[in-house]
Request: fold
Amino acid sequence: MRDFHRSAPAAVQMTVRDALNQAMDEELERDERVFLLGEEVAQYDGAYKVSRGLWKKYGDKRIIDTPISEINVLLQAGLRPICEFMTFNFSMQAIDQIINSAAKTYYMSAGLQSVPIVFRGPNGASAGVAAQHSQCFAAWYGHCPGLKVVSPWNSEDAKGLLKSAIRDENPVVVLENELLYGVPFEMSEEAQSKDFTIPIGKAKIERQGNSITLVAHSRYVGHCLDAAAVLAKEGIECEVINLRTIRPMDVESIETSVMKTNHLVTVEGGWPQFGIGAEICARIMEGPAFNYLDSPVTRVTGVDIPMPYAKILEDHSLPQVKDIIFSVKKTLNI
Amino acid sequence: MVKAMITSARTYADFTTQATFEIKKCDVFKLDEGPATQVVLTRDEGLQYYRTMQTMRRMELKADQLYKQKIIRGFCHLYDGQEACAVGIEASINLSDHLITAYRAHGYTYTRGGTVKEIMAELTGRRGGIAKGKGGSMHMYCKHFYGGNGIVGAQVPLGAGVALACKYQGNNELCVCLYGDGAANQGQIFETYNMAALWKLPVIFICENNRYGMGTSVERAAASTDYFKRGEFIPGLRVDGMDVLCVREATRFAADHCRSGKGPILMELQTYRYHGHSMSDPGVSYRTREEIQEVRSKSDPISMLKDRMLSNNMASVEELKEIDVEVRKEIEDAAQFATTDPEPPLEELCNHIFCDMPSLEVRGTNPWAKLKSVS
Reply:
């Protein structure tokens, strides 16, 4: 009996930037109503080159350079805009519109007026961009009913979540990360398809383990995996959960994991007060997983200060892999 | 000592102490008359403006070098080409007046009293930096200079606020409030125009129009590129921002206007930046190298001043060369300091969150990291 030799499906390496680009390209092609607007997105190819080539392909009507007027968020009846913020720090200039016009309108109109808009751009710290350009807005946007908020980590996340966001009938905030734009990740054959989407509201187990659960979003998923690799050498097997979506948060996945491992550490780049970790702690306490905890939940967060500029200070303002390792051991009482 | 005496003897004997120059007339808006077109420049003033502009130019070029060596990181928005603006403005206001600008701020930090050493050490993120390394390129401050602001346009309402404080305190001071052609389309600027005019605040709004908001030319961003008219009910001037004498004269005119209680005034300075928007922008995808070269050869502010002084026998070639050498040395020394000064100590991490607070505990990256903050 002969078995045909089957080679593994062809996975390719793709950077997060290219994955986002591909997602937008595919959705622009699929639906005429989709268009992109923002500062420098067209002729400049995007401040961070995420929209490279799109203006050349789709032209002025679909890819629009705007003046520096963040507040001009368009509630285009019948259209599906992708609104790029050069960074989410500038979104504060438009945050009233995002919350009061985009997030709340479907509710206020009792279902009459939907707002299928995507707000996307880099979120959180970069490298040396100082206090006004380094804030993480996951907690701020995650606070508001009516908004969906996603935070991709790798290229598959980026493509799948952005495509879902564009197809979603609701306002979706897509929190990208500048430092990840140039990082290549493997894209499975499935992810390379034009119909590949990732459901909003579902977390992913990136690594299985029994000793402790680590939950993170965006860049810190990578940090957690790095910490897990180091800890594995000491026999500590971390289960790493990539949240993928901030709102609606997949608390069930976290609970299931905690009921297995009995320990939880959350990791985020944002500030501690009223943050993602704080919300996870509250939800765990309110649910069935609380009784399975052998120790309090530990939050690893950014330091509670405006972001300093000097490299040595900046490095100490954000969670490093060693902070995660330290916190895991403290939580496990090792 | 002997050399100095000989030099000063040369000064009086050989050089013209002052000369009158014809400068470009300003376009005016809602004004019956504009700034003078015949201005006097003294030799001392000329030498001072030359030195200051040259220092700013060399400082920015050194920053370019250090950035490429990765000794400066993050954002770095250089001012070379626009020197006449900062120097001309400062020439007609006092250090007791106030000034606020956006992120292209190294030049203003210097004219407002920062030293090259402190500025460069801030760019390299060292403890000797003007903000102790905590602010970086976009967040430098000194007395009566409020930065250094990263969010486009946000500094404009702040500037009006400073002017309000001046009026409130009746101290005859004014606030110079700068923004770029890109920022000029921000809504908050129009709100500020309204309040400043309504309350007759002593603020000089200055739009530094360098033709491009990052990669977007003014034609692609603005329904009206007559930035000096966009205050609608605020009088305006359009000024040749490459000529330090034009800027000085226009600022003198504007300052008189404010101090006489007439309220705000708007100046558009037509200027140009040689570098791209920031160090990560080559600056040639949205404009041609020919354009940059043309401005450099025909309108460079330092060359313009130099030509004026030399052709009117107000200085010698050697004298100006000597200033160049001194400036170069000052920049080299500052760069040396900026690259060797140590980074800020970790104890500094949490300081200056609040003012006047006794020691405060600050959460570190994990619950066991209890850090300390002092004001």
